[in-house]
Specification:
Rossmann fold; Luciferase, domain 3; GMP Synthetase, Chain A, domain 3; 14-stranded mixed beta sheet; five-stranded parallel beta sheet; 14 helices
């Protein structure tokens, strides 16, 4: 199976049903397949060849889905750009991947002026370049695409900040789509199920595009959505499913008092138990957490709705788990030498299977990739242990580890304690340079609307719950925590601000 065949199958089965709807209109399954196929032909007519890298800078909407599917059908390699990164980072990615073309939205015309130099430019809207709509032509796509052909490069930062592109094949994406369907959703969604893309579809929300296409159910796209916009869309479009980063789940829980959602998934970071309880009470009890990486497409593990219910009803340890390992994934916890560790012993998480990237683009000669491959296993850089029921508990990221007085301290454990303080919304913990201890533990946190929690109360809770070497030496209440381009709390930016002594 390839993505092109999947789209053609969906068009043949579901024809006139609504497939996608966004700020730029709506498409039936037949219209979506026809426009994607036509755009694939148009892109090849520009002189592009299978395997060429094509940058994509589009907001949530129909054009984004058409571009994604068209590039896959044409055998081209999609390189999605996050609008939040900005021109300098886009240009570094373009240089690393050797891009030949750019598909962009007219709103980014000014910011992409330098980026477009030397590239074939295709624009959605009125701006320099070939109009996307004008490239959509009739007829089949004369390209034979195979499951192990490259379909995309997913970029993140290496340990030095230099972009690194994880290679993704048709096999990777379809394996992820099947696992999302059966492990996260519990089976194909019903025909009346509606998925809401409230976060950027180039990230975790986009993992649901193919499952919904396979099921013949509609998807609705929002652009730059806040909590109020999401709640209004849920009501207007009778939304049944969505996935959000924990930060947005928390904001939604503050703004809502019940929704008709049949599933609210969260990923990208864990949620503290108190935050999970608020989401269950104020949004929906049907919560699902899934875990994965840029290099190993989610889901690798799933904490399903039953696990959440059990955790809230009296098994709180479940809520700190990343869930059971998915059937199609081989996952282990190993020591520094790569030797498997027994259940309960902490080490690095390694994985292999169809969702795992075959490697990085331009990896030769680079020492800053942060993750490595050993005998077919991806070393994730995540620290954790396996436990009862084949579940995985994640402690932290190896590169976020704090070393204080010779002890290894992982921020997440401390953040969970602080988030458990009544009235605290979110927390971030970092290690500041210290002449005596090497690093000292420091915390920042935000409060729920209308609440004020003093730093002394946070520090008291930490003293009561944590051994001495893990207790923060300082705590700071701030109005908001900085987020990275994917909506996660950026410990790196927290550290920079604290080291610079900036006022928040």
């Amino acid at each position: 199976m390839t993505i092109g065949l999947l789209v053609q199958r969906a068009a043949a089965r579901f024809g006139d049903r609504r497939a996608v709807q966004g700020p730029d209109g709506a498409r039936t399954f037949a219209e979506l397949a026809g426009r994607a196929s036509g755009l694939a032909r148009g892109l090849l007519s520009l002189g592009l060849s299978p395997g060429d890298r094509v940058l994509e800078l589009l907001p949530n909407g129909c054009a984004l889905v058409e571009s994604d599917l068209a590039l896959a059908m044409a055998g081209l390699v999609r390189v999605p750009l996050n609008p939040r990164l900005g021109p300098a980072e886009w240009e570094r990615i373009a240089d690393d991947c050797g891009a030949r073309a750019l598909i962009y939205d007219a709103r980014f015309a000014e910011d992409t002026e330098a980026l477009r130099s030397g590239l074939q430019a295709v624009v959605s809207g009125d701006a320099p370049g070939r109009r996307l709509d004008d490239l959509v032509t009739g007829g089949p796509v004369p390209i034979g695409v195979l499951p192990d052909d490259l379909v995309g490069l997913a970029y993140s930062s290496g340990t030095t900040g230099r972009p690194k592109g994880a290679r993704r094949t048709h096999r990777n994406r379809i394996a992820s789509a099947l696992a999302m369907t059966h492990e996260v959703l519990g089976g194909p969604p019903a025909a009346d199920a509606v998925y809401l893309h409230a976060g950027p579809a180039i990230h975790t929300s986009g993992l649901f595009v193919l499952p919904w296409l396979m099921a013949g159910a509609p998807q609705v796209f929002l652009d730059h959505a806040d909590a109020a916009t999401i709640l209004a869309a849920v009501e207007e479009h009778r939304v049944t499913h969505t996935a959000l980063v924990p930060t947005m789940v928390s904001r939604l829980a503050e703004a809502a008092d019940g929704t008709p959602l049949r599933m609210l998934a969260y990923a990208g970071a864990p949620m503290p138990p108190g935050q999970i309880r608020r989401a269950s009470e104020r949004l929906t009890p049907h919560l699902v957490q899934y875990y994965g990486l840029v290099e190993a497409m989610p889901p690798l593990t799933v904490l399903d709705a039953d696990d959440h219910a059990r955790g809230l009803a009296g098994e709180p340890g479940l809520l700190t788990s990343a869930g059971r390992v998915c059937l199609a994934i081989d996952l282990r916890v190993v020591d520094e030498e790569g030797r498997p560790l027994p259940d309960g012993e902490q080490g690095e998480v390694v994985v292999r299977g169809d969702p795992v990237t075959p490697g990085y683009h331009n990896a030769e000669g680079r020492a800053d990739l942060g993750k490595g491959f050993t005998n077919g296993w991806l070393r994730t850089g995540d620290i954790g242990h396996l436990g009862p029921g084949g579940r995985l508990w994640l402690t932290d990221r190896r590169n976020d580890m704090i070393i204080t007085g010779g002890y290894n301290v992982y921020p997440r454990e401390i953040e969970d304690v602080i988030a458990g303080v009544d009235g605290v919304a979110e927390a971030a913990v970092v290690g500041l340079a210290d002449g005596e201890w090497g690093q000292r533990v420091a915390a920042v946190y935000t409060c729920l609307a209308g609440r004020r929690i003093e730093p002394d109360e946070v520090l008291r809770r930490c003293r009561a719950a944590l051994p001495a070497h893990k207790r923060p030496k300082s705590a700071l209440s701030v109005t908001s925590l900085p987020l990275n381009a994917t909506g996660k709390i950026s410990r790196r930016e927290v550290l920079r601000r604290m080291e610079a002594g900036e006022r928040w």
